[in-house]
Write a structure and sequence with these properties.
single chain; about 190 residues; mainly alpha; 11 helices; 4 strands; about 5% strand
């Protein structure tokens, strides 16, 4: 959903501070956070100029049901950016990503997605890791469930929604809107753009 693009555009802005690397598994509410604690997590941000606003980018924030409450505990006034992609295209992209990484069997797209839908946490596949991966491919597109968890804690004006298709078609306009939403110089032009 263009989270890498967003990370690099945010990281380059001089008024923002993000971790040195885009991290997917290091997020508030996740397993590593639970294991290592808040001090560890916030240490990932590194030192920042006190004028810089801190942030992080991970697709796991939206999917992990534990995250909204933990984010609220540490940052009730946070501004959230949610990048969404048309769910079928997102599932296809996720399917190929999982297959490229060797995490699911190599099958033709139609067969693989049919298996993901059929086995995605519903049937008793003998391989629970594969069952979880199939469930992730499909369930990450259930945006309504994921967003509802955040709207229990945060006001709608704290959330900026981006569409992957808009990022593809009009990236300059999108990044300006993001910078405006975050209250930083919206005329900044990142090199990653």
């Amino acid at each position: 959903c263009a989270t890498s693009w967003l990370y690099y555009c945010l990281k380059e802005h001089p008024e923002l501070r993000l971790p040195d690397k885009k991290r997917e598994v290091e997020y508030l509410g996740g397993d590593l956070y639970e294991e290592r604690g808040a001090e560890w997590y916030f240490g990932l941000m590194g030192d920042s100029d006190t004028r810089q606003k801190k942030g992080a980018v991970s697709v796991e924030y939206l999917f992990d049901a534990r995250s909204p409450g933990v984010v609220y505990r540490y940052a009730p006034d946070v501004k959230l950016i949610v990048s969404l992609r048309e769910p079928i295209s997102r599932a296809i992209s996720a399917y190929f990503w999982e297959m490229r990484k060797g995490l699911i069997p190599i099958l033709p797209l139609e067969d693989g997605l049919a298996r993901a839908i059929a086995e995605g946490g519903v049937t008793e596949d003998p391989n629970p890791d594969l069952r979880k991966r199939h469930a992730d491919i499909i369930q990450r597109g259930f945006y309504d469930i994921q967003l509802e968890r955040y709207l229990q804690y945060f006001l709608p004006d704290q959330v900026l929604f981006l569409l992957y298709e808009d990022i593809q078609q009009k990236p300059r306009e999108v990044i300006r809107n993001v910078y405006t939403f975050l209250g930083v110089d919206s005329n900044f032009a990142p090199h990653s753009f």
